[in-house]
Amino acid sequence: MDLAGAYEGILFDVAGGFTLLLLMTAGVVCIVWDIFSNDDPVLPVLAAMTCVVAAGWEVRGLDAGSSTAFYDLIRAYGLTSYINITLLISALVSIVLSVPYLNRIRRGYGEVYALILFATAGAVMLASANSLVTVFVGLETMSIALYILVGLVRQGGGGIESALKYFLLGAFSTGFFLYGIALLYGATGTMILPDLAAGFEARGSMMLLFWAGVALFLVGFLFKVSAVPFHMWTPDVYQGAPTPLTGYMSTASKAAAFAALILVLYYGLGDLAATKWQTALAVVALVTMVGGNIFALVQNNVKRMLAYSSVAHAGYVLVALVAGTGEGYAGAAYYLLIYSFMNLGAFGVMALLEWDQKEGSEQTIDSLSGVGLRKPILGVVMTVFMFSLIGFPPFGGFFGKIAVFAPAIEAGFTWLVIVGVLASALSGYYYLRVLYVFWMRPQSWSAPQVQAHKFPVPSLSAAVLVACAVVLTVIGFVPVVRDLPMVYFDVAFTGGTP
Amino acid sequence: MEIALSWYLTLAAVLFAIGVAGVLLRSNLIIILMSVELMLNAVNVTLVAFSQSMGDVSGQILVFFVMSVAAAEAAIGLAIVIAIFRNKLSVDINDFNLFKW
Question: In chain A, what are the domain boundaries?
């Protein structure tokens, strides 16, 4: 390793990793501040401002080509900036929605906002990974912060049971993930992603070691993005966690894991692996789309239904990755951005409509009858989110689905896309059912429900939700958002010729 | 006599399998946590063995990260176990069935 230019390069490195450093610093500041001024209402403002500043910084990097920093350990600008903006928007919306929610259930701890910042820092590290070490550290930083956030409400048993299930399965999958890294390292002799292919040949092409490593490595990712058959934790965890934080988990942690997967497949395995992992991934995408949608059909609990729907959406993104082309990866990045707005919005609306005093873990769809008429703003934005989740034009979800399905057709996976379109038609049933209950059922509320609904909708939360809905309505007509990730990938890249 | 790389790898694979079996078969939370630690440490053995045999240091650097992550995970895991024990007075995973299907 050449250390000659170390001091000259440090400014560039710091600029490249600025978001990561800023989020970590702000998280530490929040924790220390909280010691001296317990649960200070300034903390969420500080956390939100941090996200805004970091997102503003990342906008600068959108047009720049991808480069590496800190001796190839992280990747900066380009695709990383695009994904980081998604992650920071997700964190910002979650922080804004969490404040009134957590204060209402008397859990407005200052540490929550520090933990959201730490989780976001982990997510950002995942999205900028250029080395297996960075992937591992980012994944764990994010996961460990999320384990705590899920178990925030210790009373009642629901939240802590969710945290336990998330933790146990998460730690278990980390073991496999790490073993995969170790075997990949043994087969290639390097941790740097772009060097994997060359290292594999230099070490004498140890097929068994390499493929075992890739398989275990992918299992870890598929667990994090909750693909079937590694999805069993998702509904339980989403149901028990505080609702705005469920929204955060379902968007930021998923987007970050997908981003790292894209980086690994594009830079690391792309050249030598195409045909082999494509088939396996195609099967996983298929069962994820079908399984997620079918399980969602039979749910009565709103949060479980949305959890299975997020499983199904992971399947749609996987379809784009199966295509294995630059266009496919760009489509996946675009879909993750749109999906974040939809899901944050849907969970945000549910957070404002909870009446069961158990963070929505026992809230059934039927209990929402007539909500749309009583709270028209929430009703209207929920309508936008649901139609967008179905993939109904002119909302963002429709354009997102085109972006993930079109590259798969071009790559010859028409059968997979047909299944995907049928599965998303199926999803119309459970999304529209929510709207039916919202608008067309007569109100038949019990006394505690009426009591809970006297809780006024905080104006800032309403503003954020309306903003999400507006973004979803217009984003499809701003082609630059869709075309931007295209330039990050070599368009001629087809994942190595089969 | 020098011990061949394959011996270390076999040892690590066996340790990993014992850890997986412990997580899947035992129902006591504390033992499951110990089994997870065993899995992580089996990986550490693999990493150090590869790193040593290749004369490349990055595997051993990852081991340091794994150790610190394992410590953090143990802290969080035990905290969750204590919190759930206060609710249910049990550390048996079969008792935690609020959510299913």
Answer: 1-270, 273-498
Contact list in B for residue A163 (CB cut-off 8 A) is: 80, 83
Q: Which residue has the tokens 């629901």?
A: A158
Q: How many CA atoms lie within 13 A of A123 on its CB side?
A: 33
Q: What is the pLDDT of residues A284-293, one digit of tens each?
A: 999 999 999 9
Q: Are strands A74-76 and A67-69 parallel, antiparallel or unpaired?
A: antiparallel
Site of tokens 């204590």: B82
- Could you list the residue range(s) of the whole structural domain that residue B46 is in? 28-101
Q: State phi, psi for A279 to the nearest 5 degrees.
A: -65, -45
Instruction: Reply yes or no: is the peptide bond before residue A442 cis, omega within 30 of 0.
Output: no
Residue A4 per-residue DSSP state: T
Read off the amino acid at residue B2.
E
| pLDDT per position as a tens digit, A454-480 | 667 889 999 999 999 999 999 989 988
Q: Is residue B80 part of a domain?
A: yes
Tell me whether residue B15 is in a domain. Answer: no
Tokens of A77: 């600008």
Cα separation, A157 vs A239, whole angstroms: 12
Name residues whose C-beta falls within 8 Å of residue A462's C-beta, 6 or more positions apart in sequence: A377, A378
Domain harbouring B96, CATH code: 1.10.287.3510
Tally of structural domains, chain B: 1
* Residue A164 to residue B84, Cβ atoms within 8 A: yes
Is this complex's ipTM strictly greater than 0.85? yes
Residue B21 lies in a domain: no
| Confidence band, pLDDT 50/70/90 cuts, at residue A105 | confident
**How far is Cα B79 from Cα B64, in angstroms, rounded to an integer?**
23
Residue B58 with chain A: CB contacts under 8 Å: 133, 185, 190-191
Q: Which of residues 281-320 of A touch B (CB under 8 A)?
A: none
| Residue B6 placed within a domain | no
Nearest residue in B to A132, CA atom: B62
Smallest Cβ distance to B87: which of A157, A181, A240? A157
pTM of the model: 0.94
Which residues 140-159 of A are in CB contact (within 8 Å) with B? 140, 144, 147-148, 151, 154-158
